[in-house]
Write a structure and sequence with these properties.
Number of domains: 4
Structural class: alpha/beta
CATH class of the largest domain: Alpha Beta
CATH superfamily of the largest domain: P-loop containing nucleotide triphosphate hydrolases
Number of strands: 8
CATH architecture of the largest domain: 3-Layer(aba) Sandwich
Radius of gyration: 44 Å
Length: about 550
């Protein structure tokens, strides 16, 4: 006897055998019991969820010798004929092969005749969306006013392709994807019937491969049994169906949450060596972290997560040790990495970088805790208002108290003051004058040292070999400086440009050097003042922070 695949051998024969479509079976059974059966039905949903099986069960329930009944008996000749597909009154038509208007006209003409020995003549049209526009138009009239002995059952995976005129004449039933838990339960029942030894984890991998389709899951189960026989090992199933091993996901997520970068990168190496698609693995890892987050966020995660009971318990054990905020931050990094993999040439590198960031994330304080610390800081500052004053303001009252009893002496000119040449202010005004009249010349003069500055003679020094010295020694540029000097001093002025050693300490500072020195001094003063400010020191102590940089406004 030829082998019958599991999807056919264990095809549902009653409404009670249908898995995951209780909303459909209950409605159809109530309609039969109350004699409110419509003349046309439309079954929609993904592949392998029970649309055609439901159509056959409904046809048997309507034509059963014991019926119409809520459940067919499956023992009378009429039920057996429908189960075998040999009934002359229940016709299954493939919409993809009979798309023309002539096929529908033939169906319409034959429907006028009474059934040969059944109660109803039932037409089951699968993939009805494949019919042509003319075929749909030919079907409209009989679909709207069919003979009392005719029932139509349409099945499709793409209801949006049907004309609205067809949709309005049918009772529509939307079939859902079968939950993973129910698929696993059905597979366990079949395994027991077939005498197969297999774990729940392996059944969950097979069910996940089916992606909500019972038929796809059974086809995958058939393949597993052909490879493993009656003794099925978890590793063999993972290798055969090509899904990611849940233990690898658990190990990698645990390494990331515990900050173990070594194990995290070794996990990526294992993924690559197994031949898994890196982006697909990343998506599986995202789903794993989503499960952890849902478990830590809601009281009843079983109604949200499509997982087997063993997988749910494993996630619970892992999620208990981590806060939801920590899981959510890492999940955000993982989602960003997955979105970048679509255009990336090195998806493994992206995953490794994301895992390293996730493993080295510093813990953050909850917002409420930060608010409480800030309130404590404000309370402390209000109790001691002197903390709000900067060091200069705190020193001012002390200076005032010492003023009556302290006589300040005027500073005596020292050697440095005696060495300062007169005319420094004149040099600054002269450079400002040049910047206004000829900005290019004035910009060069800013880098020169005023060796001598008088109305009749100006002597400027520049570093040996510098760019500015070369520019000022140019005859045209030097002539421009002389003309500007004569205009500024209102008399002829001799201008001389000299070369000085870069390390000469006796040469006065250039305006550029003076400006740079003043800026550095102001920045150092600002840093020192910020570091010594009592309020800032108290804030750093309360919030556990540190000063990274100080920038003047």
């Amino acid at each position: 006897m030829s082998y019958v695949v599991l999807a056919r051998k264990y095809r549902p024969q009653t409404f009670g055998d249908l898995t995951g479509q209780e909303h459909v079976t209950r409605t159809l059974q109530n309609a039969i019991e109350t004699e409110r059966v419509a003349h046309a039905f439309l079954f929609t949903g993904a592949r392998g969820v029970g649309k055609t099986s439901s159509a056959r069960i409904l046809a048997k329930a309507l034509n059963c010798e014991q019926g119409p009944a809520a459940e067919p008996c499956n023992v009378c000749p009429l039920c057996k004929e429908i189960t075998d597909g040999s009934s002359t009154d229940v016709l299954e038509i493939d919409g993809a092969s009979n798309t023309g208007v002539d096929d529908v006209r033939e169906l319409r003409d034959n429907s006028r005749y009474l059934p040969s020995h059944s109660r109803y003549k039932i037409y089951i049209i699968d993939e009805v969306h494949m019919l042509s526009t003319n075929a749909f138009n030919a079907l409209l009239k009989i679909l709207e006013e069919p003979p009392p002995h005719v029932k139509f059952i349409f099945a499709t995976t793409e209801p949006h392709k049907l004309p609205i005129t067809i949709l309005s004449r049918c009772q529509r039933f939307d079939f859902k994807r079968v939950p993973l838990v129910k698929i696993v339960a059905r597979l366990r029942y079949i395994a027991e019937q077939e005498g197969i030894t297999i774990s729940d984890a392996a059944l969950a991998m097979v069910a996940r491969k089916g992606d909500g389709s019972m038929r796809d899951s059974l086809s995958c189960f058939d393949q597993v049994l052909a490879f493993c026989g009656n003794q099925v090992q978890d590793d063999d199933v993972a290798t055969l169906v090509g899904v990611v091993d849940r233990r690898l996901l658990a190990d990698l997520s645990a390494a990331v949450l515990n900050g173990d970068t070594q194990v995290a990168l070794e996990g990526v190496s294992r993924v690559d060596s197994f031949g898994y698609n890196i982006r697909q693995f990343t998506q599986e890892l995202i789903a794993h972290f989503r499960g952890l987050l849902v478990i830590r966020s809601v009281p009843n995660p079983a109604g949200i997560l499509d997982l087997a009971e063993a997988e749910l318990n494993e996630l619970r054990r892992q999620a208990e040790a981590h806060e939801p905020q920590a899981i959510q931050r890492r999940l955000t990094l993982l989602i960003k990495a997955e979105s970048e993999m679509a255009q990336a040439s090195f998806p493994r590198l992206l995953l490794e970088m994301a895992l390293l960031k996730m493993a080295t994330l510093q813990p953050v304080l909850p917002v409420q805790q930060l608010i409480e610390r800030i309130k404590a800081l404000e309370t402390s500052a209000a109790a001691t208002p002197e903390l709000w004053r900067n060091p200069a303001q705190q020193a001012a009252p002390a200076a005032k108290q010492q003023a009556p009893s302290t006589q300040a002496r005027a500073p005596q000119p020292g050697p440095a003051a005696a060495a300062v040449k007169p005319g420094g202010g004149s040099w600054e005004r002269f450079v400002a004058f040049c910047l206004e009249r000829k900005p290019a010349v004035g910009a060069l003069l800013e880098y020169g040292s005023p060796l001598h500055c008088a109305p009749d003679r100006i002597e400027i020094g520049f570093d040996e070999g510098s760019y500015y010295l070369t520019c000022l020694q140019d005859s045209d540029t030097l002539q421009s400086v002389r003309e500007l000097a004569a205009e500024f001093n209102h008399q002829p002025t001799q201008v001389t440009v000299k070369s000085v050693a870069a390390d000469t300490a006796t040469a006065p500072q250039s305006l550029a050097e003076k400006k740079k020195h003043d800026d550095e001094q102001r920045l150092n003063d600002a840093r020192r003042e910020a570091a010594e400010h009592p309020l800032l020191m108290a804030s750093l102590k309360v919030l556990g922070g540190e000063i990274i940089d100080v920038k003047p406004l």
